[in-house]
Write a structure and sequence with these properties.
The chain has helices at about 1-10, 35-40, 80-85, 95-100, 120-125, 145-155, 155-160, 190-205, 210-215, 220-225, 235-240; strands spanning about 15-20, 50-60, 60-65, 110, 135-140, 165-170, 250, 255, 260, 265-269. It is of the alpha/beta class. The chain has one domain (about 1-269): Protocatechuate 4,5-dioxygenase, Chain B, CATH 3.40.830. Strands 5-2-6-1-10-7 form a six-stranded mixed sheet, with helices on both faces. A two-stranded parallel sheet has the order 3-4. Helix 6 (about 145-155) packs across helix 11 (about 235-240).
Length: about 270
C-alpha cells in the first residue's frame, strides 16, 4: 500500500520552455532533440502536459478540449514524410473544463475541434515518443499584452503541484526573414545582432526580470530584430511567470540555426 501511495502522489513538476526551431527537427538527426529527451527522462513522469505554443494564437483565451486531438500539419513546402507523422496523444477535456472554471481575468473558450500544432507535437514526440501522456494546448490570446498573459500563466501554478508539466514552445530569437539558409546546420553560426540579443535576453531570464522581458521592444534594436513579432517569445514568459522566488533555473541548447533562430531552452525547477 505504501508503494502504491508513493506512485500515485503527484510530484511537483518543473516548467519548461523549448526552443523548437524548424518542423524538420521531428525527422532529421540533430543536436537539439536528444537533449529534449534527456530532460524529459530526468524529470518525473507528468500526469498531463499543458502546452503553450507559438503556433496557436486566438483573439481570446482558448484550450483544446477534444478527447483525441488530431495532429495538425500547420506548415507547407516540407518533405512528405513530415506530413505523415502523427502524434495520437489523448486529450485532457476534464482538465480543460477545470481550467475554464478557475481562470480569472479572461474567459477561457473550450475548443472541441482544435488539434495539436507542430510547436507542440514536434517537441513532445521526442520527449514522450509513445504519445501516452495526455496533452492540452492553451492559445496565446492576442487581446492580452505580455503582462496580462503572464498573469494568466501564474494561475497555472497549482498544476505544477498536481503533476502537470507546463510546456512553452517557441524561440527566444526568431527572425525567419533573415535566416541564412546556407548555414542551417552550423550551430556556432549566429549573426552578431542575434548573439547580442540572446545575451541580453538570457541575462534578464537569469535575473528573473520579467518586467524588462515583458517590455522587450525597449531593449534596443538587436532585441527588436530578434523578436519581430511576439508569438515565439511569449511562451517563454508564460514559463518564467511560473517560477517561485529562488527556484533553480537551467538554460540549455543555446546554439543557433541559420544565424537568426536560437534554440535556447529554459527549465524552471
Amino acid at each position: 500500500e505504501t508503494a502504491m501511495t508513493t506512485t500515485t502522489t503527484p510530484t511537483r513538476m518543473p516548467a519548461l520552455f523549448i526552443g523548437h526551431g524548424s518542423p524538420m527537427l521531428a525527422i532529421e538527426p540533430n543536436g537539439f532533440t536528444p537533449v529534449w529527451r534527456q530532460v524529459a527522462d530526468a524529470m518525473p513522469r507528468p500526469r498531463a502536459v499543458v502546452c503553450i505554443s507559438a503556433h496557436w494564437e486566438s483573439l481570446d483565451s482558448a484550450a483544446t478540449a477534444a478527447e483525441a486531438p488530431p495532429t495538425i500539419h500547420d506548415f507547407y513546402g516540407f518533405p512528405p514524410a513530415l506530413y505523415e507523422l502523427q502524434y495520437p496523444a489523448p486529450g485532457q477535456p476534464a482538465l480543460a473544463a477545470e481550467l475554464q472554471g478557475r481562470q480569472q481575468g479572461a474567459p477561457l473558450r473550450l475548443d472541441q475541434a482544435r488539434g495539436l500544432d507542430h510547436g507542440c507535437w514536434a517537441v513532445l514526440m521526442h520527449m514522450y515518443p509513445e504519445a501516452d501522456v495526455p496533452v492540452l494546448q492553451l492559445s496565446l490570446p492576442r487581446r492580452l499584452d505580455a503582462r496580462q498573459q503572464m498573469a494568466l500563466a501564474r494561475q497555472l501554478r497549482p498544476l505544477r503541484e498536481q503533476g502537470v508539466l507546463i510546456l512553452g514552445s517557441g524561440n527566444l530569437v526568431h527572425n525567419l526573414r533573415l535566416v541564412d539558409w546556407a548555414h542551417m546546420n552550423e550551430p556556432d553560426y549566429g549573426f552578431d545582432w542575434a548573439r547580442s540579443a540572446q545575451r541580453k535576453l538570457l541575462d534578464l531570464v537569469r535575473a528573473g526580470d520579467l518586467e524588462a522581458l515583458a517590455d522587450y521592444p525597449a531593449l534596443g534594436d538587436d532585441v527588436r530584430r530578434a523578436v519581430p513579432t511576439p508569438e515565439h517569445f511569449l511562451p517563454l514568459l508564460w514559463v518564467l511567470a511560473l517560477r517561485d522566488e529562488g527556484e533553480p533555473l537551467a538554460i540549455f541548447n543555446t546554439e543557433f540555426v541559420g544565424g537568426s533562430l536560437d534554440m535556447s531552452c529554459v527549465q524552471v525547477g
